[in-house]
Each structure stands twice: as C-alpha cells, then as structure tokens.
Amino acid sequence: MAAEEAARFTLVITGAPYSSQAPQTALYFARAAVTAGHTIAQVFLYGDGVHLASSLASPPSDETDWPAEWRAFLGEHRIPATCCIASALRRGLLDESEAKRYAKPASNIAAPYQVAGLGDWLAATQDSTRTLYFNGGQS
C-alpha cells in the first residue's frame, strides 16, 4: 500500500467557546492533524465562532481558556486565522481598523486573528485538500 499524502486542511469554526464544543473539538483535531504530519492552511471563524478571537474572554481559573489555547497553537504553528468581518461586527468584535471606521473606543480582536471577508475563506478552501466545519449547533 502506498504512503498516504499529507492533507492540507482549512478549518471553519462556527460555535462559540463555552456555549458549544466546536472550538474544543476543532483544536483537538488540529493538534492531531499536525502531529500526524498534515498541515492546517487556515482557521476561519464564522458566526458565533468569532468569539474565539476575543481579547476580552476571561474564563474562571478552573476552566480551560480556549481562546488562549487557540492563540498559542496558531502562533506555535504559524497558522493564519481569520474572522469573518460581518460576523465579527454583528457580535461587537472589532480590530483596530474597524474600531476607527465605526468610531468605537477600542478594539478587541486578539492577534493572530485578522478580519476578512468570505473571499479569503474561499481562497483558503481552494488552497486546501479538505475543508472541515466545526459547527456550534444549539445549546
């Protein structure tokens, strides 16, 4: 049997941390994929998934800090991560540029996340061998 070629994944996360398992499951998958020699091409946050990029998330000390876990993983593996701009704006998450644009007093999207449109998601999916969705579902 021939050796299997390494896959290149785009991950789409639509569920918020603490109200769905989507970010946790996606992180477990991403860690396993990288360990197995695969590549995560991009992580795209959509819908409630954009809450994962908040710099203001402050879970109790006895809970896992999923936003911090994701930031560490993305930084360690130099994986680009994008928030859907429309989803972020609807939920009060802004980068510095959008905060200025809308005359808001502060930004709250943590690095390494960038805001972008669905065109960036489309480009990432075309550059990947697989796109996986981690949906929030209903709580």
Can you give a write-up of this model?
- This is Sulfurtransferase complex subunit TusD.
- Its main location: cytoplasm.
- The protein has 139 residues and is an alpha/beta fold.
- The chain contains 5 helices and 5 strands.
- A 5-stranded parallel sheet has the order 4-3-2-1-5, with helices on both faces.
- The longest helix is centred in the first third of the chain and has 14 residues, at 22-35.
- The chain is globular.
Strand and helix map with partners:
Blueprint lengths: L7 E6 L8 H14 L3 E7 L20 H12 L3 E4 H6 L5 H6 L11 E4 L1 H9 L3 E5 L5
Parallel strand pairs: 1-2, 1-5, 2-3, 3-4
Helix pairs in contact: 1-2
Quickly name the level 1 CATH class.
Alpha Beta
CATH fold-level topology:
Hypothetical Protein Ychn, Chain: A
Report the biggest beta sheet as strand number plus sense, adding barrel if it closes.
5 strands, parallel
Number of discrete helical segments: 5
**Percent of residues in beta strands?**
15-25%
What is the global morphology? globular
- The CATH homologous superfamily is named DsrEFH-like
| Uncertain stretches of 5 or more adjacent residues | none
Distance between the termini: 44 Å
Annotated CATH architecture? 3-Layer(aba) Sandwich
Strands of the biggest beta sheet: in what spatial order? 4-3-2-1-5
InterPro entries: DsrEFH-like, Sulphur_relay_DsrE/F-like, Sulphur_relay_TusD/DsrE
Main location: cytoplasm
Keywords: Cytoplasm, Transferase
Protein name: Sulfurtransferase complex subunit TusD
